[in-house]
């Protein structure tokens, strides 16, 4: 294997690992939003005004996780193309 080919292969592997780290960051952010919603419900169960905030946090978590999954899949497909 030539030196140039080895560098190209290692660069591709670094890019794949960066894509995985980015996807995990999206998942971590979505889980933090879900945890914040659960904490609000736990500490303020009778507050009807906060239920809108809880719904916003839950929707935000779903949107963030969906976008992260979409981005991960599209970048992975582009990396697999010759």
UniProtKB/TrEMBL annotation:
InterPro entries hit by this protein: DUF202
Domain DUF202: start-end pairs: 14-77
Membrane topology field: Multi-pass membrane protein
Superkingdom: Bacteria
Membrane spanning stretches: 23-44, 50-73
Keywords: Membrane, Transmembrane, Transmembrane helix
Coiled coil region boundaries: none
Predominant subcellular localization, coarse grouping: membrane
Localization per record: Endomembrane system
UniProt key word Transmembrane helix: yes
Pfam families referenced in this protein's UniProt entry, alphabetically: DUF202
Name used for this protein in its record: DUF202 domain-containing protein
Species this protein is from: Banduia mediterranea
């Amino acid at each position: 294997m030539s030196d140039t080919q080895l560098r190209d292969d290692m660069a591709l592997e670094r890019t794949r690992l960066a894509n995985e780290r980015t996807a995990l960051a999206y998942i971590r952010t979505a889980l933090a939003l879900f945890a914040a919603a659960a904490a609000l419900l736990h500490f303020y169960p009778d507050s009807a005004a906060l239920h809108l905030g809880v719904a916003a946090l839950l929707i935000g978590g779903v949107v963030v996780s969906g976008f992260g999954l979409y981005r991960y899949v599209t970048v992975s497909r582009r990396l697999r193309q010759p």
